[in-house]
Amino acid sequence: MAVAHLSMMISKLQNVSTSDHSSVVSMNLFVALLLACIVIGHLLEENRWVNESITALLIGLCTGVVILLISRGRSSHLLVFSEDLFFIYLLPPIIFNAGFQVKKKQFFVNFMTIVMFGAIGTLVSCTIISLGATQFFKKLDIGTLELGDLLAIGAIFAATDSVCTLQVLNQDETPLLYSLVFGEGVVNDATSVVLFNAIQSFDLTHIDSSIALHFMGNFLYLFFASTMLGVFAGLLSAYIIKKLYFGRHSTDREVALMMLMAYLSYILAELFYLSGILTVFFCGIVMSHYTWHNVTESSRVTTKHAFATLSFVAETFIFLYVSMDALDIEKWRFVSDSPGTSVAVSSILLGLLMPGRAAFVFPLSFLSNLTKKNQRDKISLRQQVIIWWAGLMRGAVSMALAYNQFTRSGHTQLRANAIMITSTTTVVLVSTVVFGLMTKPLIRFLLPHSPKQTTSMLSSEPTSPKSVIVPLLGQDSVDDLVGQDIRRPASLRDLLTTPTHTVHRYWRKFDNAFMRPVFGGRGFVPFVPGSPTERDNNVQWQ
């Protein structure tokens, strides 16, 4: 009896050892693939068609095919796609770095336009996709899809992925276009996730006006509460570092505190059922405005490159992750008897993306242009086309939301759910690869590079009206407004056409008088005896 029990324990230990070894092998291969993506992406840097995200997708697909052949059709991936892994570990560094590195001047000058595109536009796109899916899916033999599923489909495919476009655009040559595409992408992801969570949390079997009002109120609460939590976390980190000045003894503690506070803000948002995307994004903005200036020079360099590196690796990891999981046999087996249905669903969804984008990009751009007097500040038709095109691609957020809605613990149980998972995968791959390949040629055609124009634009920046508009949260000099005579709006029309003048003027006064003395920032460095900044601080206050 004892011998049998001992042999059973040895057998279990061997199985665990084998499982651990296979996990180690998988991780080794995945790290090797990441390295291959980095090297090949560098070699293709100047390629007219391919960018790093497409490179990662193609390498993942090729690797998946090889694994399928080796395993004789049993598996196609090294790691199983998990929405928890995506939302908890991979997405936070990407979103935080977006807020930390953003050029805040352009972002906040165009903040209202960005919010219109990212929030209102997402709602419009979600509505059109949901209505279209409801009409067209009735004619297909998909299976049972409830109202909540159809609304969730709208939220899933309203989430854009503008990485391919941002890799082509240059924020120094096209600052307005870059800030709009970038800002809309972040707000769009946050709005899609908040909208998706709101849809899941409501009983949609009985819909009336009170439910609609409650739904909108819940949506606005999540939006603003998430933003305020991110701002609070960023200010708390700035206050702690300013008061305690960790760099006096160890710069490692400064860097660690910034990283952990940023991640804590995201986890707290998820804990309180808020939007972690919005929270960590605004935490990054506040940290770059206050906290980053309170640390030592070596910590500034370290954090800037560390956050960018983590974001880059996470993005590459996600594209590999998605493309390898796209060949998962378990999900495709459900639709093997009717591949035409899956192709039809994918085609319908791809077709709905285009009118879903056009329905708000062009009208909202027209409204935005009405509030701007300067021709340079207006969104041209060519730029509108690029903004429309940038939002046609779908990425890992759509995949993660689809897995959350249509799978249980990563496994598909119903045929309708399997069709939606395979269709989402197809839409993500086709939109990223096909639209992504055409992004560079399209942008070069619509925005031909003109060195003279770029040089004149950059040289005229200090005397342009935009130079008077100090960024809401920026790393520019605190004395930018000295000697500048900013006219107060004399009418409502003036306020609508030049709202940023007044907003930024009063924000700068409030920031200098109350915020920076407490939380630090540029020009308000910590006064600690023996610190590297003591001399500069003494000079400033003399």
TrEMBL record:
The keyword Ion transport applies. GO terms for cellular component: plasma membrane. Belongs to the monovalent cation:proton antiporter 1 (CPA1) transporter (TC 2.A.36) family. Residues 37-443 form the Cation/H+ exchanger transmembrane domain. The chain crosses the membrane at residues 21-41, 53-71, 78-96, 108-129, 219-241, 261-286, 306-324, 344-364, 385-406, 418-438. The keyword Transmembrane applies. It is found in: Membrane. It is a multi-pass membrane protein. The gene is NHX. InterPro entries: Cation/H_exchanger_CPA1 (IPR018422), Cation/H_exchanger_TM (IPR006153), NaH_exchanger (IPR004709). Gene3D superfamilies: 6.10.140.1330. NCBIfam families: b_cpa1. It catalyses: Na(+)(in) + H(+)(out) = Na(+)(out) + H(+)(in); K(+)(in) + H(+)(out) = K(+)(out) + H(+)(in). It holds the Pfam family Na_H_Exchanger. One of its GO terms (molecular function) is potassium:proton antiporter activity. It comes from Pyrus ussuriensis (Ussurian pear). This is Sodium/hydrogen exchanger. Keywords: Antiport, Ion transport, Membrane, Potassium, Potassium transport, Sodium, Sodium transport, Transmembrane, Transmembrane helix, Transport. GO terms for biological process: regulation of intracellular pH; regulation of stomatal closure; sodium ion import across plasma membrane.
